[in-house]
């Protein structure tokens, strides 16, 4: 009489860990790719290559790829589009792996949102080109990138750390963290408006939003300084209460925000050089990802074991 082989606990654990590692790699790839495309999109704008490809999805009315007459601008814009396709592919792979490995409803939902919004982002990119880089469409394009990075960061946290347990942080500490993230959102919004008033339109003929850039730089700085102050308070609370992972993330976030402030002051005084502006853009979404992790770290993982409950249930099933 035949019997179904029963895996030992160690063998089951090895299978689960192997699955978890592959899912972790896919999650990190999703997050990193969403951050990188902010950098490539910034390069398009800062080099004046926003209309390097005059059509979408074709680069020109006659050609899908750039033609020599478009020069370096066509190559830069087309390179960003190619990377956008890779980002979509990575997001789809993550979603398929989450479904196949039964990663749990939360992770599958987050992965689905990332896929859907990444496709939407590509379509908005087409609108940006068709509207000749209108600052409002460019701003929406960037806002959606921030949302995608945050979603990918939360998804990666859920994959790597696992489901959250009950809240252990003090109420005052929680309020401080949420106030910090709210001010961070304001900083990003005002930053987009400031960029829309400045010289980096993505093309020499693109319109600006009509705001005074010298005034907007100050308006952008005020919530930035408030963010630094709130992060100092969050850091003090984390030192007093922990938990340790939360403290490490707060320290990392504080360090990156201080770097961002220094770069912001430098770029303002140096006349907005494209290298510093590009770094400033990428750091803004990295800070958004770190801010999301700081919020999530207020709750310890539901289990201390490195293997998530959903993964073990998948193997048991």
What does this structure look like?
This protein is mostly helical and 317 residues long. It folds into 2 domains: 168 residues; 136 residues. 74% of the residues lie in helices and 0% in strands. The chain is built from 9 helices and no strands. α1 runs antiparallel to α4. The chain is flat.
What descriptive keywords fit this protein?
disordered C terminus; mainly alpha; 2 domains; membrane; single chain; metal-binding; 317 residues; oxidoreductase
Secondary structure topology:
Blueprint: H1 9-46, H2 71-100, H3 105-130, H4 135-160, H5 171-197, H6 213-241, H7 244-269, H8 274-296, H9 309-316
Helix pairs in contact: 1-2, 1-4, 1-8, 1-9, 2-3, 3-4, 4-5, 4-8, 5-6, 5-8, 6-7, 7-8
Mean pLDDT: 86
Uncertain runs are 304-317
Please indicate the count of domains: 2
Question: In angstroms, what separates the terminal alpha carbons?
Answer: 23 Å
Protein name: Cytochrome b561
InterPro entries: COX15/CtaA_fam (IPR003780), COX15/CtaA_HemeA_synthase (IPR050450)
Organism: Agrococcus terreus
Transmembrane segments: 23-44, 82-100, 107-133, 139-161, 173-193, 222-240, 247-266, 272-296
Quick structural gist:
Helix content is 74%, strand content 0%.
